Structure formats: structure tokens, C-alpha cells
Here is the input.
Amino acid sequence: MADINKYRPDDKRAVEALYRRVFGIDAAESSRLRWDWQYRRNPNNPGQEPEIWIAREGTTIVGQYATMPVKLSVKGREVQASWGMDVMVAPERQRQGLGEILFRTWDRNVGASLGLGLSDSSYRLFQKLNWPDVGPVPCLVKPLTRRALRRPNWPVGINRLVSAITLPIVLIISRARPVRAEVRLVQRFDDSFTGLWETLAPKFDLAVRRDAAYLNWKFASAPHVRYSMAVARREGRNIGYAVYRHLHEPRGRVTLLVDFLADPDDEEAFRTLLNWVDREARQADSDKIRVFASHAAFRRALRKSGYFQVKSTMEFVLKINGIDVDPSFYENTESWHVTLGDSDQDR
Ligand SMILES: CC(C)(COP(=O)(O)OP(=O)(O)OC[C@H]1O[C@@H](n2cnc3c(N)ncnc32)[C@H](O)[C@@H]1OP(=O)(O)O)[C@@H](O)C(=O)NCCC(=O)NCCS
Here is the structure.
């Protein structure tokens, strides 16, 4: 029978070795580069220590559940929550109930347990344990060049044909639109973003608290990727931000609009940011822009700006423990704000 208790600094080597066995050398190396930032420097850690649960059999570590604490706004009330992320059980001990004990220990100790972008095995375990499943976070794509619609699994000839047929539409969608309001690039988020979050939080039925401390940790000091951060301003005030980066994928270049915030009722503010990101994506020679967005008003604005909804694989499960919510709460996600910037999805 395993004991489950908190991570201790001298567990580091054994946990790294288990991670290599379960996820492979490359994933383990990239996790090692992020680890200190991701687990130790999170400004929302309740006790300044990583929130990681370890399963031990004697002196052997046979599993872990590593989490990312966040403050979650639920219908205007704040709940101490956490994203469950690096969960693993030693291969020879899987399917014997250890995962379930780890999931339940985590859940008992947090006001809301959240999971995003799950592996097949963890998704099934969440289902088995009856975590509410609200379906994947919608994904939208805006094509910018004729290469945008290529698929790695299609033969070259088909890809060329699709590019040629869709070119006229792509040219119309991707035409440049002027950026009307003031937009600035910033290196860090100043305290006014905490004020912006506090003004906007009541507009979302569910969203992670995006205050300055969180934003700077998550996007200005991430060690594994470099983000651009643009801020929209009106009458001398910050009214929203967009966090994005450009990368190469097997069939072309993509701009990821990773996270954003604006008043969902202020379409002009969000569309100003979208026009800015369009311009930046074109300058970076991207073939398309990709974004994940759960809020209906943001998705409406995205569609008006030339984005199309495509299949999403970013599954989202969550369970609110800290306050009473009606079962119907999980059915209407139209005013929830969840993006690719949540959890540790953008690795
Ligand atoms: C996810 C994981 C931690 C679960 O731990 P576990 O100790 O095997 O889980 P339990 O024995 O408590 O629960 C088993 C249940 O989980 C699900 N499950 C676990 N492994 C599965 C697999 N390979 N395929 C399908 N379902 C699986 C099933 O619902 C299973 O129930 P069943 O045995 O009645 O069919 C473990 O499978 C693991 O380490 N996986 C590899 C790493 C991983 O994918 N981590 C998640 C990253 S998001």
C-alpha cells in the first residue's frame, strides 16, 4: 500500500528518473528546464512550496501528481484551485488503483480541481471518477496564406490542390485591417492589470485570476518560450492584452494567440488586439493564427475577424469543491474564459 504525501526537496532525482521512464527522455528534459519556474516560483503557491503529491512505497517513489495552484473566479467568488498536470504512475504499478488515490488526494485538498489537454489514460480516469466533463475548449484558426490549409497527413498533390482552390477566400479573409486604437508592446504587466482583472472578473462565470503577478510569472518569465505581449489602450488606460508567439510546425509557420483579456462586451477592444496580432503574424511570415477560446463573445469577434472553428483536442474537466454550484453550472460554458495560456498547455 502506497503512502501519499507532499513532495520534499530530496525527492528531486527520484521524481526526475520516474518522469524519464513514464514520459521519455525529451519530455523529461523539457520538464527539467521548466520545473523551478513552473512549480517553485508560482506566485499562487499557498505555502511558497510546490503543490506536488508523491506516492511512496517504502523509500521508492511510485507516482506523483504535480499541480499548478491558481485563484479561480467562479461567478464572482474566488476559489483556491489548481490545474492537475504532470500526473504519473510507475509503469509496473499502473492500473492498480494508485492513480485514483493520487487524483482523490489532490481533489480533497483544493477548492477546485482542473484538468486541461489530457492524455488518453488520465482523461479516462477523470471520466471513471465522474469529474464533470465540459468538452474541449474550442479552437479557431485564421488562414493568412495559401499554405494555411495544408495538412501533414495529406499527400503533396492534395495539399497543392486545396491551396489553389481556397486561395481567393484566403486573400479576402487575410486582407489587412487597420489597427485603430493604441497598442503597445510591453515587457512586463504593471499593477494596473490587477485593476483591469478586478473590473472584468465579474463578467466571467469562470476564469483564472489574471492579475499582474500571475501574468508576469506565466508570460514574462517563462523560461521555455518567449512571448510577445501587446496591450490595447484607450484614453490613457489599459483595456486589454494579447500574449502570442510564432513557431514552425511541420507544414508551415503558425502564430499562436496564447492568452488575452478584454471586456467581452467591448468588441472593439478585442478586435483592436486581433488586428494587431494579424499584423504581427504577417510580419513573421505566418501561414495562420491559432487560438483557443471558450467565451462566446470572444469567439463571435474572432469569427468576424476571419477565424474559423476547427476540431479541438484540448479536453477540459473540472470539479468545484470550495463553493456550492448547481449541476447546471457545468452545462453553460459560454461565459467562461479559458485559453491555451491556461494550465501548462503551451510547452
Ligand atoms: C494516468 C495514470 C496516472 C493513471 O494511473 P493508474 O494508477 O494507472 O490509474 P488507476 O489504476 O487508479 O485507474 C485506472 C483507470 O484509469 C484509466 N486508465 C489508466 N491507464 C489507462 C490506459 N492505458 N488506457 C486507458 N485507460 C486507462 C482507466 O479508466 C482505468 O480504469 P480501468 O482499469 O477500470 O479500465 C497512469 O496511467 C499514467 O501514469 N499514465 C502515463 C502518464 C500520463 O499519461 N499522464 C497524464 C498526463 S495528462
